[in-house]
Amino acid sequence: MTDILKDKIIGLGVTGSIACYKAIDLASKLTQSGAGIDVILTRGAREFVTALAFSAITHRSVSEDMFDPRSELSIDHVAIAERADLIVVAPATAHTIAKMANGLADDALTATVLATGAPILVAPAMDAHMFGNPATQENVRTLKRRGVTIVGPASGRLASGLVGKGRMVETAELMGWIRMILGQGGDLVGRKVVVSAGGTQEAIDPVRVVTNNSSGKMGYAIAEAARDRGGEAVVVAAPNALPDPVGVRVVNVNTALDMQKAVTDEIEDADVVIMAAAVSDWRPVTTADQKIKKGESTEWNLEFTKNPDIIAGLPSDKLVKVGFAAETEDLIANAQTKLVSKGLDLIAANDVTATDAGFATDTNRVMLFDREGGIEVMPLMSKYDVGHRILDRVKPMFKDGLKQDIAVGEDAAGGRD
Ligand SMILES: Cc1cc2nc3c(=O)[nH]c(=O)nc-3n(C[C@H](O)[C@H](O)[C@H](O)COP(=O)(O)O)c2cc1C
User: How many Å separate Cα 236 from the centre of its chain?
Assistant: First the structure.
């Protein structure tokens, strides 16, 4: 299983807003992820950006005027509508939204939108008053009612100088929505995937904690991969600086004990738990109510008590259990010992001293160990791809035959991979 965007065709409609510059970034990110992007510019968009900017990035021709005999659309005006897996209109002006809501088709973009059977995502961008106008609001409601996904607009500083609701959402958020929509009907439909992420914090006093360097990136990437295969993805997240991923439910916790409770609650109806969090092994025996003063002493001793081993304590009859072993030495031996002692089905081991893998990086180099003694050594890859590889291994391990049958059926129909 690779990135859901690979080899997908996305029709990207760009309309006459100053936010057009963000569409160039979006086209670039989508192209880098392996999708083929068919850009359609409205007349308004052509005042802000050129076809050349998009064709240089997408390496594909750009559609402008459907009546231009040099345009592919002059031969087959619904060509993009028919081949696209998804139509994205970003930025979407009030004008184009109004045309879409009324079923008009007087340019290449609106004709494509009207003719397509693919899902449609619209990212409005406009002055706050234009967005707040009852006409626009009614048009947005109409599109939603017809199944169009409306993303944003966000609040913030607008090109007009006003601060309000009208900004097009950022590329990263749109990428999440696009992946989620394309992943609907994937091979994890009907499956609940619970992932822990981040580094727990154990309070010493109201201002000090014991924690670790985990960024949360690995766990979040696994949850996003599960989302992109149609799964219900939940992250039990210890403190981290990452934005909540689109389409992933995030349960925020602080301490190991909080995490244990949240994970135990979430696994009730889950199919797999993947513990990618760095859970503190120890917590202070007591937490002071007030900030501890420096005082005169030159030494300070803290007494710790052991935290529970969360994954070892989870039932394994219906739940696939996947652990992570972040090691700085004896990686293989330590991972194999943890696999057995914690009753895991799979363990992903990584050397956190490597500079291109482990904590805080976007890439990881992981080895997977299973109960049959199998070892899969994976090359350096993005944490998102590692997430997919782990889920590939988890899929045949599901312990509930009925749900698996449903997922296999979806797989055959949906044609993932
Ligand atoms: C400088 C400038 C910025 C504009 N920005 C927006 C915008 O962000 N959102 C919007 O709905 N209209 C905006 N407009 C107005 C649209 O370009 C205009 O309504 C146009 O007819 C839209 O056509 P289109 O949707 O076919 O591209 C802007 C106009 C100008 C001159």
Answer: 15
Contacts of 370 (CB under 8 A, 6+ apart): 339, 345, 346, 393
Question: Residue 219 has what pLDDT?
Answer: 95
Equal CATH topology for 9-182 and 187-403: yes
Decide if 150 contacts 131 (C-beta within 8 A).
no
Q: What is the pLDDT of residues 181-214, one digit of tens each?
A: 999 989 999 999 999 999 999 999 999 998 988 8
The pLDDT value recorded for residue 157 is: 81
Q: What atom in ligand 1 is closest to the CA of residue 158?
A: 8
Among 43, 48, 66, 95, say which to mutate for ligand 1: greatest number of ligand atoms within 8 Å of CB. Answer: 95
Residue 410's CB is within 10 A of a number of other CB atoms, namely 19
How far apart are the two ends of the chain, measured CA to CA in Å? 5
Pick the CATH number of 187-403 from 3.40.190.10, 1.10.357.10, 3.40.50.10300, 3.30.70.330: 3.40.50.10300
Confidence (pLDDT) at 281? 92
Cα separation of 149 and 166, whole Å?
16
Domain locations in the chain as residue ranges: 9-182, 187-403
For the domain made up of 9-182, the CATH class stated in words is alpha beta
Which two three-digit tokens encode residue 376? 């899969």
Q: What digits encode the pLDDT tens for the residues 365-402?
A: 889 999 988 999 999 999 999 999 999 999 999 997 54
Whether residue 212 lies in the annotated active site:
yes
The one catalytic residue among 102, 133, 212, 254: 212
- Condensed to tens digits (0 to 9), the pLDDT of residues 334-356 reads 888 999 999 999 999 987 666 66
Write the DSSP string, 187-230. TTTT-EEEEEESB--EEEETTEEE-----SHHHHHHHHHHHTTT
- 48-81 tens-digit pLDDT: 999 999 999 999 999 998 888 888 888 788 899 9
Tell me, in angstroms, the distance from the centre of ligand 1 to residue 15's CA: 7
Q: Residue 31 above 90 pLDDT? A: yes
- What is d(CA 265, CA 310) in angstroms, rounded to the nearest whole number? 12
